[in-house]
C-alpha cells in the first residue's frame, strides 16, 4: 500500500509518510529558514516591533561602520601621515568582521542569542570609543579591529534573533526592512562621514555609535526576559572550530599584508613580501585539509561546493565585491585629490554609484518574483556592470563631471542586479541542512572579496602614484605631499598639478584592473545552472500557502524516490 497522499492534501499527524518526510526533507536549522512560530508569541506586538527596531539599529550601526570611513579616510590617514596606508582603516574592520562571523553563530548556540548580542554590542561600542580617541595610526587600526569583532556578532546574531521572534509567514517583511537598512547605511555612511569630517571632526564618525548603541542596549535589556533565547542543548565549547578560525585568520592577514605592502613599503621581490605570500598561501591547503579531517562542525563545510551554482555564486561574489569595496573606498579619495573637493562633496559624489546599486538590487528582486527568471537578470547585470566598469577607465583629471557620474550610475545598476541574483541562484541548490552553510558562504565570499579588493586596488593606486611622482624631478622632492591632502594643498601649484594628474592616472589604472575583476566574475556567472523557482505564493482556503503545499509535495517525491531507488 502506498503511503503517498494526493497532491496538496494535508498530512495526518503521526502517519508513516509524515515520519518519512521529516527524515528526507530539509531540516530547519538556520536563522534564515528556521521557523520561529511559537518562540516569540509571549511578546506583545508592540514589544516585537520595539525589539525589532533596536535590533535593526544595531545592525545598521555595524553596516554604517563599513562605509562611513570612505570619505574620511584621506583626512584620518593624513592626520597620522599615513595616506599611503589608508586602506587599513577599512581593512582592519573588515578582516575581523568577516573572520568572526562563524564564531558568533556557534556562540549563540552555546550561550544563547541575548547574552551573545549584548557582548557583541559592548565590543562594538568599546572599539568605537577607542577609535574615536586614537592617538596614533596603529592604535586606530587595532581599535577598528575590535569594533569589527563586535560588528561580526551584530550582523549574525541579529538575524538569528529575528528568526526566533517572528513566525516564518511574517518574517519576509521584517527581513526586507533589515536588508533595506543595509542600503541606507551604504548611502548615509559616506555622506555622514563627509559631514562629520568637514564640519566637526572625523572622530565623530565613531563617537556617534556610542549613544545610538547605548539606546539599543537599554531597549534590549528592558525586553530581555521576554525575548526568545533558544539554545542547542548538545552544542559545547568544543564544537566551535577555533582551529579553523585561527588558520583562516592568519592566512587572510598574511596575504593582505603582502598585497598592502608589495610595491609600497617593500618591493614585490623582497623577502618580506615573498614570505607573506608563501606562508599565507600555504595555509590555504592546510585549512582545507584541516576542515575535511579534524572538526566535527567545520567553520566552512566543504561538501557544499559539489553544487554548481554555489561555486558560481561564491566565485562571482568574490570578484564583484572586490570592485564594490574598492570603489567605495577610493572614489571619494579621487574626488578629493584630483578634483579638489571637500570630504562632504566627495561623499555626495559617491551616491551616483551607491544609490543605483541599492535601488537595482530591490528592483531585480521584484523582477525575479514576477517572472521567475534568475539567470537572465544575472547575465544582464553582469554585462551592464562590465560596461560601466570599462567606461570608468576613462575617468581622470580631464573627465567632466557629467560623464563621471554617468559611468558610475551604469556600474552601480549592473552591480545591484548581480548581488540579488547570485544569492537566489546559490540557495536554489540547497539540500538537507545546507541552506545556512550556503548562505553563510556566499556572504563570506562577499566580505572576503571586499577585504582583498581594498588592498589590491590600494596597492595599484599607490604603486602607480609613486612611479609618476618619483619619476618627475619637480615632484620627487615632494613625495610626502601625496600622503596627505593637507600637505598637498600646501605644496607649490606646479607640484599639486603633477600629483593630481598622477592620481588620476593611478585611478584609471586601478579601473583597468577592476574591469578585469568584473570580467572574471561575469565569466563565472556563465556557468550558472538552472534555477528552479516555485510558483508565486498564494493562500489556500485553509490559510496554507501554495509554496508550503509544494514543499510538502516535493518532500513526498523525495520519499517516493528513496523508497523506489
TrEMBL record:
Disordered: region residues: 534-565
Domain of life: Eukaryota
Keyword Repeat recorded: no
Limits of the Major facilitator superfamily (MFS) profile domain: 51-533
Localization terms from the record: Membrane
Alphabetical list of SUPFAM superfamilies matching this protein: MFS general substrate transporter
Composition skew (Basic and acidic residues), residue ranges: 539-548
UniProt keyword terms in alphabetical order: Membrane, Transmembrane, Transmembrane helix
Pfam families: MFS_1
GO cellular component, one term: plasma membrane
Gene3D superfamilies: MFS general substrate transporter like domains, Multidrug resistance protein D
Residue spans crossing the bilayer: 46-64, 137-162, 174-195, 201-224, 245-266, 272-290, 310-330, 350-368, 377-399, 405-426, 510-529
Cited InterPro entries: MFS, MFS_dom, MFS_trans_sf
Bilayer disposition of the protein: Multi-pass membrane protein
Protein name, as recorded: MFS general substrate transporter
Principal place of residence: membrane
Organism: Gloeophyllum trabeum (strain ATCC 11539 / FP-39264 / Madison 617) (Brown rot fungus)
Molecular function terms, GO-annotated: transmembrane transporter activity
Amino acid at each position: 500500500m502506498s503511503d503517498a497522499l494526493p497532491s496538496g492534501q494535508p498530512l495526518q499527524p503521526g502517519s508513516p509518510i509524515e515520519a518519512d518526510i521529516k527524515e528526507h526533507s530539509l531540516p530547519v536549522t538556520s536563522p534564515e529558514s528556521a521557523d520561529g512560530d511559537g518562540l516569540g508569541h509571549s511578546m506583545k506586538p508592540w514589544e516585537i516591533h520595539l525589539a525589532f527596531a533596536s535590533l535593526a539599529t544595531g545592525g545598521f550601526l555595524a553596516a554604517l561602520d563599513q562605509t562611513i570611513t570612505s570619505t574620511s579616510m584621506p583626512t584620518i590617514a593624513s592626520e597620522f601621515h599615513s595616506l599611503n596606508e589608508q586602506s587599513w582603516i577599512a581593512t582592519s574592520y573588515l578582516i575581523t568582521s568577516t573572520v568572526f562571523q562563524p564564531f558568533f553563530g556557534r556562540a549563540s548556540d552555546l550561550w544563547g542569542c541575548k547574552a551573545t548580542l549584548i557582548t557583541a554590542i559592548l565590543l562594538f561600542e568599546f572599539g568605537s570609543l577607542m577609535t574615536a580617541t586614537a592617538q596614533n595610526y596603529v592604535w586606530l587600526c587595532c581599535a577598528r579591529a575590535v569594533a569589527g569583532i563586535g560588528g561580526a556578532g551584530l550582523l549574525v546574531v541579529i538575524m538569528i534573533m529575528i528568526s526566533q521572534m517572528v513566525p516564518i509567514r511574517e518574517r519576509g517583511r521584517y527581513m526586507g526592512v533589515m536588508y533595506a537598512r543595509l542600503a541606507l547605511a551604504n548611502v548615509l555612511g559616506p555622506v555622514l562621514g563627509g559631514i562629520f569630517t568637514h564640519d566637526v571632526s572625523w572622530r565623530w564618525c565613531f563617537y556617534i555609535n556610542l549613544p545610538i548603541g547605548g539606546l539599543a542596549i537599554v531597549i534590549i535589556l528592558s525586553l530581555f526576559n521576554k525575548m526568545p533565547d533558544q539554545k542547542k542543548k548538545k552544542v559545547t565549547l568544543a564544537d566551535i572550530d577555533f582551529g579553523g578560525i585561527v588558520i583562516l585568520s592568519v592566512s587572510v592577514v598574511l596575504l593582505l599584508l603582502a598585497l598592502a605592502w608589495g610595491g609600497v613599503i617593500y618591493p614585490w621581490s623582497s623577502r618580506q613580501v615573498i614570505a607573506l605570500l608563501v606562508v599565507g598561501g600555504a595555509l590555504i591547503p592546510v585549512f582545507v585539509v584541516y576542515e575535511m579531517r579534524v572538526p566535527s562542525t567545520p567553520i566552512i563545510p566543504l561538501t557544499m561546493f559539489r553544487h554548481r551554482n554555489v561555486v558560481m555564486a561564491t566565485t562571482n561574489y568574490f570578484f564583484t565585491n572586490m570592485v564594490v569595496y574598492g570603489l567605495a573606498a577610493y572614489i571619494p579619495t579621487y574626488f578629493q585629490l584630483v578634483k579638489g573637493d571637500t570630504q562632504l562633496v566627495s561623499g555626495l559624489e559617491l551616491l551616483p554609484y551607491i544609490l543605483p546599486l541599492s535601488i537595482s538590487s530591490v528592483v531585480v528582486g521584484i523582477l525575479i518574483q514576477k517572472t521567475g527568471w534568475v539567470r537572465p537578470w544575472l547575465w544582464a547585470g553582469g554585462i551592464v556592470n562590465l560596461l560601466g566598469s570599462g567606461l570608468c577607465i576613462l575617468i581622470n583629471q580631464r573627465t567632466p563631471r557629467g560623464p563621471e557620474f554617468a559611468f558610475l550610475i551604469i556600474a552601480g545598476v549592473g552591480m545591484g542586479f548581480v548581488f540579488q541574483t547570485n544569492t537566489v541562484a546559490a540557495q536554489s541548490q540547497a539540500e538537507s541542512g545546507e541552506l545556512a552553510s550556503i548562505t553563510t558562504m556566499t556572504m563570506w565570499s562577499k566580505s572576503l572579496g571586499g577585504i582583498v579588493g581594498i588592498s589590491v586596488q590600494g596597492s595599484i593606486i599607490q604603486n602607480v602614484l609613486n612611479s609618476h611622482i618619483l619619476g618627475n624631478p619637480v615632484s620627487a622632492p615632494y613625495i610626502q605631499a601625496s600622503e596627505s591632502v593637507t600637505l598637498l594643498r600646501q605644496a607649490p601649484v606646479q607640484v599639486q598639478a603633477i600629483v593630481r594628474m598622477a592620481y588620476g592616472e593611478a585611478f584609471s589604472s586601478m579601473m583597468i584592473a577592476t574591469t578585469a575583476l568584473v570580467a572574471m566574475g561575469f565569466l563565472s556567472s556563465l556557468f550558472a545552472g538552472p534555477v528552479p523557482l516555485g510558483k508565486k505564493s498564494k493562500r489556500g482556503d485553509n490559510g496554507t500557502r501554495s509554496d508550503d503545499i509544494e514543499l510538502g509535495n516535493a518532500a513526498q517525491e523525495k520519499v517516493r524516490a528513496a523508497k523506489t531507488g
